[in-house]
Amino acid sequence: MHKNGVGSGATNRASGPYLQITVGSVVKQILSLLSIFFVASPSSAQWTRVEGLPAGESYAVLVANDTIYASIDNMVFYSNDQWSSVQNFTPLNDSVDPITAMVKRPSSFIVGTLSQGVFETFDRHLWIPRYEGLSGLGASSISALVLRDSLIYAGTYGAGVFRAPASFATAWSQFNAGIPSNLGWNINSLTNLNDTLWAGGGANATVYRNVPQESIWQELPFATFSPLGTSFLAAATYRTSMHAIGSQGLHRTTDGGTTWTEFDPGAGYIATGGFVHTPYGLYAFLGKATSTYLLRLSEDDSSWVQVALEPGQTFAMALSGNTLFAARLDGLWKYELEPTAVGGDALEMSPETMLLQQNYPNPFNPTTRIAYQVLSPPSQGGGNLGAERVRLVVYDLLGREVAVLVDEAQLPGTYQVAFDGTNLSAGTYMYRLTADSRAESQRMLLVK
Fold first, then answer.
1. Is residue 233 domain-shared with residue 313, that is, in the same domain?
2. Is the peptide bond between 363 and the residue preceding it cis, with omega within 30 degrees of 0?
3. Whole-number Å distance between alpha carbons of 158 and 182
4. Cβ neighbourhood burial of 266 (10 Å; 0-12, 13-18, 19+)
5. 438, 417 contact by CB (below 8 A)
6. How far apart are the first and last CA of the chain?
7. pLDDT for position 339
8. Which of 1, 191, 301, 358 is the most buried (most CB within 10 A)?
9. Domain end position, chosen among 289, 306, 336
10. pLDDT score for 437
């Protein structure tokens, strides 16, 4: 099984050929059988269970505005203080299978479930069914939820991708042109990277890409096909590359998915996976039926090193502060990141690169937050040692400057600023981070 963000996040589950199931109740039975193997696994010395939460089935975890949300069975739990105190939404109806995906909008919270579609709440208590239009075998079995502009997209186990207005003013409709129904409608992962959607459908070593304003998905091979099945489980951008997790390893592209290089971590068949951006670089988790590998991307962006091995399969992971939180079938677990690499080599405490995150929430009304990381080149003497000039500016689509959020010398580190669009018109805006000769840009959508 799977699913940012930014989220996302997103948790990303997938199945091999033996799990190409489209009915949620059957999927749940298989997952329950798998839990026999790893719930009884010995506890890791580094990973510990989050106290105060039930040890139920957890498939989704996300961090938004310093609040951590985790799904356990048919409930959403949340905390503003690293789970020192725990609160929860009203549970979904008892007949609803576990929550498998979550997204947060400015005024509501939306979840997908394993067999009964999508629900939304505006007050954390009353859940409104949002499954009108989710028709066809597997359409109510939700694998992922992502937002793009004013639309919400749902990946399903068996019926492909659906989309609807994020306001749910109209019903869901299928969005599968270009994805073959006999191969790709079992959506293992669905990711929004800079407004381009990436759908991992089926297990035939291909991924499907959809760019803004296009109504068709483009099929792209990303790996060498294996008879065991090769699914596309997760994707993330880092520096100038895009990284992906497949059933047999990790993959990297620098040309938008046309060509890929492969890296074999020695983990064998991978069932679930995901990426997490941290102050120490990009991390990946590779989930198997009885264990999860935690890896960190090398400094040259070409290979991965193992950081930890966790008993039990992870379905989703998110970072809050310096702690990774992992969603498993036996509850939510945590792992404290340390500035030490495998083999005892010290990692830099500063971020490995300048990184501009997608704002959250997005779309937003009227405020949002933008997180970024900066790295200073070695000082040549004089001035503020280790600091560099950083500018974060918001532009409209005509290139006109509408706000300067940051314009100062900053030391290496992770930063977050707020942006208020109260006095701006609804629409798409660009924000650009520059530091010395480096620059990165993202888009955000203001809705009113």
1. yes
2. yes
3. 10
4. exposed
5. no
6. 36
7. 55
8. 191
9. 336
10. 64
Q: Are residues 365 and 331 in the same domain?
A: no
Q: How many CB atoms lie within 10 A of CB 422?
A: 9
Instruction: Kindly compute the dihedral angle of the four CA atoms of residues 169, 66, 372, 111, in this order, to the nearest 10 degrees.
Output: -30
The segments of the chain whose pLDDT lies below 70 read: 1-45, 339-354, 375-387, 436-437
Closest Cα partner for 284 from 299, 306, 264? Answer: 306
Helices (H), 17-156: 24-39
- Give 426's strand partners: none
pLDDT digits (tens, 9 = 90+) for 351-378: 445 678 888 888 889 999 898 877 654 3
CB 165 within 8 A of CB 152: yes
Q: What is the pLDDT at residue 5?
A: 34
Tell me the Cα Rg of the chain: 21
Which 8-state DSSP code applies to residue 157? B
Structure tokens at 166: 């994020």
Same domain, 330 and 364: no
Residue 94 shares a structural domain with residue 237: yes
User: What pLDDT, on the 0 to 100 scale, is given for residue 120?
Assistant: 98
Residues 278 and 407 in one domain: no
**Which residues are CB-contacts of 252 (< 8 A; sequence separation ≥ 6)?**
241, 242, 243, 244, 260, 261, 263, 301, 302
CB neighbour list of residue 198: distance below 8 Å, 6 or more residues apart: 189, 190, 191, 207, 208, 209, 232, 235, 257
Look at residue 2 and tell me if it is in a domain: no
The reply to whether 261 falls in a domain is yes
User: Which pLDDT does position 90 carry in this prediction?
Assistant: 96
Strand duo 127-129 + 249-253: pairing: unpaired
Residues spanned by the domain of 86: 17-336
Same domain, 144 and 117: yes
Does residue 172 form part of some domain? yes
Residue 223 within any structural domain of the chain: yes
- Which of 283, 304, 336 is a domain's end point? 336
The distance from CA 432 to its chain's CA centroid, rounded to whole angstroms, is 22
C-alpha distances out from residue 444 to 38, 195, 285, 315, 430, Å:
41, 9, 28, 28, 6
Buried residues in 307-326 as b, exposed as e (16+ CB within 10 A): bbebbbbbbbbbbbeeebbb
CA–CA separation, 117 and 156 (whole Å): 9
